[in-house]
Amino acid sequence: MPIPVCSLILNEQQSVAEGTYHVVRFPFGGGESYDAEGMHQVRQPDGYEVTDWRRDDRSGLIWPSVDGWGSLTAMIFWEAGSYSELRDQFVRDPLGLTDDPMDTTATDHRPPSPGMQCFTRHHELFVHPDVPLALRVAHQGRGTRRLTHAQFKLAIHT
Predict the structure, then answer these.
(1) In percent, how much of the chain has pLDDT > 90?
(2) How far is residue 66 from each of residues 38, 62, 75, 157, measured CA to CA in Å?
(3) Residue 10 burial by CB count (10 A; 0-12/13-18/19+): exposed, middle or buried?
(4) Which residues of 58-95 are buried (b: 16+ CB within 10 A; e: fewer)?
(5) Cβ atoms 78, 113 nearer than 8 A
(6) Which residues, 6 or more positions from 30, have their beta carbon under 8 angstroms from its beta carbon?
(7) Which pLDDT band, with edges at 50, 70 and 90, does 150 fall under?
(8) How far is Cα 70 from Cα 82, in angstroms, rounded to an integer?
(9) How many helices (H) and strands (E) does the chain have?
(10) Sign of torsion, CA 57 158 104 148?
(11) Are 93 and 44 in contact (CB under 8 A)?
């Protein structure tokens, strides 16, 4: 049985304000993104249509195509800069679209390393078609900082 997969890639800078979690937004189609199961579409399962992926947090959502055991992976590159802490997490329903919003999981807080900040992560959890998933990031630094690259992937084992 094939494993449903959604693989999103951001290859342009995305600004993140200091101190608050930010849903990483991803373009639709193009690049190296892969979405044969339709889990990251402009027209979303609840009927909402994203018109500007760069400004709409819904462009960061993956809507699982089936119930199953989800394997989440992410890659996050921050620009070099002065940080006291970098944070990232996977979250179910980050925008409050269900009766159980903001169900965070696999939250990491880490000190910065010298130079550019590059991280990968993996987590597994149960996923459902009516509960979208997102990758969120935050930083403790001065002002706005930029992500320079990000990937967010879901593989569902049924």
Answers:
(1) 90
(2) 11, 12, 24, 9
(3) buried
(4) bbbbbbbbeebebbbbbbbbbeeeebeebbbbbbbbbb
(5) no
(6) none
(7) very high
(8) 34
(9) 0, 9
(10) negative
(11) no
147, 10 Cβ separation under 8 angstroms = yes
What radius of gyration, in Å, describes the C-alpha atoms of the chain? 15
Q: How far apart are the first and last CA of the chain?
A: 9
Residue 141 has pLDDT above 90, yes or no: no
Mean pLDDT (the chain) is: 95
DSSP state of 18: T
| Per-residue tokens: 52 | 């500007």
Q: How many CA atoms lie within 13 A of 36 on its CB side?
A: 6
Report the 10 Å Cβ neighbour count for 147: 21
How many angstroms separate the CA atoms of 23 and 157, rounded? 25
